[in-house]
Design brief:
Elements: E1 13-21, H1 30-46, E2 52-57, E3 67-73, H2 76-86, E4 95-104, E5 129-137, H3 139-143, H4 146-161, E6 167-172, E7 181-187, H5 190-200, E8 209-211, E9 216-221, H6 223-230
Antiparallel strand pairs: 1-3, 1-4, 2-3, 2-9, 5-7, 5-8, 5-9, 6-7
Helix pairs in contact: 1-6
Length: about 230
């Protein structure tokens, strides 16, 4: 499948798409499910390397969905083509999209250069757990002076640096969807991530959070294993 090539450090278009399986899927014969899973897996792989895809199982982690795909590409058109194709292929015909969070990467307005935590978007080796959610700020946040916002973000960044083992991806989607940002974290230790979130909620910038739900947490699995866990 021909898709635009990636270049490290470029501006990416990224989607986190959560799928729900129709219960009818699990009532199909084993052979039909085996063939359906393989057809979907091959369809996903056909779009590589232009669109890199990582699979996460949300079975038992998030009500209403069983599969989360993290996809990274150059632009939205190829991603849309891929999504349409997947929903018509094998197991994909039994899947519906329950959550779809997307946006573009760009340099932060509050830091001079990306930290190692923020460079996760360019990596291809994934950590065990992924948590992703939409995020929007209040109107009051944008009406403050740049210096006031920078001061609160400095506190926010300082807390984040104390958890250097937790990676972060920030997507910008203001004007493109209901949220302004999409925030994703990768980690090997879920309780430690919960500690980070608790610490960030003690900072002054928390006053200006308008929305940061739904939160979707998944466990990274090889693609075929994530599909098998659905049934």
């Amino acid at each position: 499948m021909s898709t635009p090539a990636e270049t490290p450090g470029q501006r990416y278009f990224v989607q986190y798409t959560a799928f729900r399986a129709d219960p009818a899927w699990r009532r199909l014969p084993h052979s039909a499910r085996d063939d359906g899973r393989e057809a979907l897996a091959r369809a996903i792989e056909d779009y590589a390397p232009g669109i890199a895809t990582w699979a996460y199982s949300t079975v038992g982690m998030k009500v209403g969905c069983e599969l989360l795909l993290w996809r990274r590409g150059a632009e939205p058109v190829a991603m849309q083509d891929m999504t349409a194709h997947l929903l018509q292929t094998g197991m994909g015909a039994y899947l519906s999209i329950e959550h779809n969070l997307y946006g573009f990467t760009r340099p932060s307005s509050y830091t001079k250069r990306p930290t190692t935590q923020e460079q996760a978007i360019d990596l291809n080796a994934r950590q065990t757990y992924l948590t992703v959610y939409p995020f929007s700020k209040t109107t009051e946040w944008y009406l403050m002076s740049r210096d006031a916002r920078q001061g609160m973000m400095n506190e926010h960044i300082r807390v984040g640096h104390e958890y250097a083992d937790i990676r972060q991806v920030l997507l910008y989607s203001t004007g493109l969807d209901d949220q302004e940002f999409v925030v994703a974290y990768e980690m090997e230790d879920l309780p430690r991530f919960s500690e980070l979130v608790t610490a960030l909620r003690d900072t002054e910038a928390r006053r200006y959070t308008l929305r940061d739900t739904p939160i979707i947490t998944g466990i990274h699995r090889p693609l075929r294993e994530a599909l098998r866990l659905i049934g």
